[in-house]
């Protein structure tokens, strides 16, 4: 079994500033950090660190070879990451001394994927493999349709949330994951509560309250979050999703996969950074929580 991830790859450029700039103001940064990011890259790293095989389908520009190399170092199969004539996606993140931030996101190569590349990659997939997507690339509908036709388990992480994007892939999905606010927004658009969404597996993440699992024909099951001192929630949802997918791929019952993912997400919020600091399976298993 394997996981195929049609996912974004970003460079997260984080600038430390004395305060957020006003219109027309020029500020000197106190520091700069560059992280591997993008919801897709985060999920691929989480899957690999959870002990499952993951093939990343995506694109970078010539300026993004470092990102592809880093994914390889983290155990992700990067053969299906194309180099295109568009700059790599990136986020410019300004953070002031109080922790307030502003973000400029440039999708770049994440929206330059050739659909033929997608077909070539999934030609190597086997029936029963998992395919996951997020709303940060092009070709989502094409991927969902093709994955469904190939007999893959098609999964969608509905972020950044757009109701129309979810509705476009909904007929092909086996698994949908979204947060509490996104579930409410989807209900406003479609009239469907989380329990009524016509998808076999639905997980609604509830932040510090945990997660709710809804399986068609069954009563909802709630999972409490571990109590930790959170210092940075960036990437925690992606870590949770990657660990759930890895558990599914390894044949775990969904409840067990969610419990393990909860532990991984709890560790993640105690760290600064994104893909580079996602915990590995040993750390998750050895973690002690109150």
Automatic annotation (TrEMBL):
<feature type="binding site">
    <location>
        <begin position="10"/>
        <end position="12"/>
    </location>
    <ligand>
        <name>substrate</name>
    </ligand>
</feature>
<comment type="pathway">
    <text>Carbohydrate metabolism; D-ribose degradation; D-ribose 5-phosphate from beta-D-ribopyranose: step 2/2.</text>
</comment>
<protein>
    <recommendedName>
        <fullName>Ribokinase</fullName>
        <ecNumber>2.7.1.15</ecNumber>
    </recommendedName>
</protein>
<dbReference type="InterPro" id="IPR029056">
    <property type="entry name" value="Ribokinase-like"/>
</dbReference>
<keyword id="KW-0630">Potassium</keyword>
<dbReference type="Pfam" id="PF00294">
    <property type="entry name" value="PfkB"/>
</dbReference>
<keyword id="KW-0547">Nucleotide-binding</keyword>
<keyword id="KW-0479">Metal-binding</keyword>
<keyword id="KW-0808">Transferase</keyword>
<dbReference type="InterPro" id="IPR011877">
    <property type="entry name" value="Ribokinase"/>
</dbReference>
<feature type="binding site">
    <location>
        <position position="234"/>
    </location>
    <ligand>
        <name>K(+)</name>
    </ligand>
</feature>
<feature type="binding site">
    <location>
        <position position="262"/>
    </location>
    <ligand>
        <name>ATP</name>
    </ligand>
</feature>
<dbReference type="InterPro" id="IPR011611">
    <property type="entry name" value="PfkB_dom"/>
</dbReference>
<comment type="function">
    <text>Catalyzes the phosphorylation of ribose at O-5 in a reaction requiring ATP and magnesium. The resulting D-ribose-5-phosphate can then be used either for sythesis of nucleotides, histidine, and tryptophan, or as a component of the pentose phosphate pathway.</text>
</comment>
<feature type="active site" description="Proton acceptor">
    <location>
        <position position="238"/>
    </location>
</feature>
<keyword id="KW-0418">Kinase</keyword>
<keyword id="KW-0067">ATP-binding</keyword>
<feature type="binding site">
    <location>
        <position position="268"/>
    </location>
    <ligand>
        <name>K(+)</name>
    </ligand>
</feature>
<keyword id="KW-0963">Cytoplasm</keyword>
<feature type="binding site">
    <location>
        <begin position="38"/>
        <end position="42"/>
    </location>
    <ligand>
        <name>substrate</name>
    </ligand>
</feature>
<keyword id="KW-0460">Magnesium</keyword>
<feature type="domain" description="Carbohydrate kinase PfkB">
    <location>
        <begin position="6"/>
        <end position="279"/>
    </location>
</feature>
<feature type="binding site">
    <location>
        <position position="179"/>
    </location>
    <ligand>
        <name>ATP</name>
    </ligand>
</feature>
<feature type="binding site">
    <location>
        <position position="136"/>
    </location>
    <ligand>
        <name>substrate</name>
    </ligand>
</feature>
<feature type="binding site">
    <location>
        <position position="232"/>
    </location>
    <ligand>
        <name>K(+)</name>
    </ligand>
</feature>
<feature type="binding site">
    <location>
        <begin position="237"/>
        <end position="238"/>
    </location>
    <ligand>
        <name>ATP</name>
    </ligand>
</feature>
<feature type="binding site">
    <location>
        <begin position="205"/>
        <end position="210"/>
    </location>
    <ligand>
        <name>ATP</name>
    </ligand>
</feature>
<keyword id="KW-0119">Carbohydrate metabolism</keyword>
<comment type="similarity">
    <text>Belongs to the carbohydrate kinase PfkB family. Ribokinase subfamily.</text>
</comment>
<comment type="subunit">
    <text>Homodimer.</text>
</comment>
<feature type="binding site">
    <location>
        <position position="238"/>
    </location>
    <ligand>
        <name>substrate</name>
    </ligand>
</feature>
<feature type="binding site">
    <location>
        <position position="273"/>
    </location>
    <ligand>
        <name>K(+)</name>
    </ligand>
</feature>
<feature type="binding site">
    <location>
        <position position="271"/>
    </location>
    <ligand>
        <name>K(+)</name>
    </ligand>
</feature>
<dbReference type="InterPro" id="IPR002139">
    <property type="entry name" value="Ribo/fructo_kinase"/>
</dbReference>
